[in-house]
Design brief:
The chain is an alpha+beta fold and about 300 residues long. About 15% of the residues lie in helices and about 35% in strands. The strands form five sheets. It has a six-stranded antiparallel β-sheet with strand order 4-5-6-7-11-10, covered by helices on one side. It has a five-stranded mixed β-sheet with strand order 1-2-20-15-16, covered by helices on one side. A five-stranded mixed β-sheet has the order 3-13-12-8-9, with no helix packed on it.
Length: about 300
């Protein structure tokens, strides 16, 4: 088992169980480069479900058709992304994929990601990115005040400067390259961000205060909590060979106490369960969020729990 943790508001727990992977695909060895514009008649579709906000778009035609899904489970700087279609057969599982949303030399340039390869819909090959940022991680030790505006602030939102600069979704693995060229990507991301931001009021939180906050809630005993949760990969899920992503969100009050924890599965067919909410609300110790004046404020904390099978 290992822990994957981001420097921003979202952190991620990775749970592994020893078993063969049934849903992974391997692609042809030959190289290919493919650039796809939006499919004829295709427009951005915004799906504001109860527990998520999702953008959907189609690209290309015929055997080159690709489907894109971008999902946020709570407001923040990152999102999950699924890219699916026959062209994705060329990408191998277990190898890094370079991802970029703008010019290679700019702040939205390439960075390595490790997606899971699986299927979507009618067995279409898919790359599944559980958490992606528009900008690469800043260099270690970089002064936050000196970062370009594309990196944003402590506010849980997609940075406006990064949204405006986004003009592509490019995936590269070795000599294989897939470039999606959607129209009005920045506008679509702004709609996604607004949809997620509306959740704050639904949770009883002050959206305006979150736009200017200077610190998000931070768990002080994250390592201890993660070790407890990682000990448990549900036996029933292991026997079924089931993998999945669970998204956990809780409120954190001005005293740093976590309450109202909820967990949502990334897939409606997922049957994986976890006691993570009980662990975080009973044992979690948090630094509270701080408003623009530096005073504690009520906010939320979100994390993803990743269940992954691995070969024995």
């Amino acid at each position: 088992m290992r822990l994957v943790r981001d420097n921003a508001m979202l952190a991620h727990l990775l749970l592994l169980a020893a078993a063969p992977l049934a849903c992974l695909l391997s692609g042809p060895a030959h190289a290919a480069e493919l650039a796809l514009a939006s499919a004829p008649g295709s427009n951005w579709v915004m799906d504001g479900a109860e527990n998520s906000c999702r953008l959907i778009r189609e690209f290309g035609e015929g055997d080159d058709r690709v489907n894109l899904l971008i999902t946020q489970w709570s407001p923040g700087k990152s999102f999950s992304m699924v890219v699916a279609g026959r062209p994705l057969r060329r990408f191998d599982d277990g190898r890094p994929v370079e991802v970029q949303f703008g010019d290679a030399a700019g702040p939205l340039g390439p960075r390595p990601e490790r997606p899971v390869k699986g299927t979507l819909g009618d067995n279409a090959a898919a790359l599944i990115f559980h958490s992606v940022y528009l900008t690469p991680p800043p260099p270690d030790g970089a002064n936050p005040a000196a970062r370009p505006p594309e990196y944003g602030t402590a506010a849980p939102m997609l940075p406006p400067a990064a949204r405006a600069a986004a003009d592509r979704i490019e995936l590269v693995q070795g000599r294989d390259r897939l470039r999606l060229e959607p129209t009005r990507l920045g506008d679509a991301l702004a709609v996604l961000d607004d949809c997620s931001g509306q959740r704050l009021a639904e949770w009883g939180l002050d959206r305006a205060a979150h736009a200017t906050m200077i610190q998000a809630p931070e768990p002080l005993n994250f390592e201890d909590l993660s070790r407890r949760i990682q000990r448990y990969y549900p036996l029933a899920a292991r026997m079924r060979g089931e993998q999945g992503n669970l998204h956990m969100r809780m409120l954190v009050d001005e005293a740093g106490i976590a309450t109202d924890c909820t967990i949502t599965a990334a897939s409606e067919t997922s049957r994986i369960t976890t006691n993570a909410c009980e662990q975080f609300t009973a044992e979690g110790l948090f630094l509270p969020a701080l408003d623009a004046a530096g005073k504690p404020m009520k906010s939320f904390y979100a994390t993803s729990i990743l269940f992954r099978m691995q070969a024995p």
